[in-house]
Amino acid sequence: MKKYIYEYVRIEMPQSFIKFPVMEEHREIISEYGSKGWRYVGNIRISQTNAGGSLGYDLIFEKEEE
Question: What is the DSSP string of 1-61?
Answer without folding.
Answer: ---EEEEEEEEE--GGGSSS----HHHHHHHHHHHTT-EEEEEEEEEE-TTS-EEEEEEEE
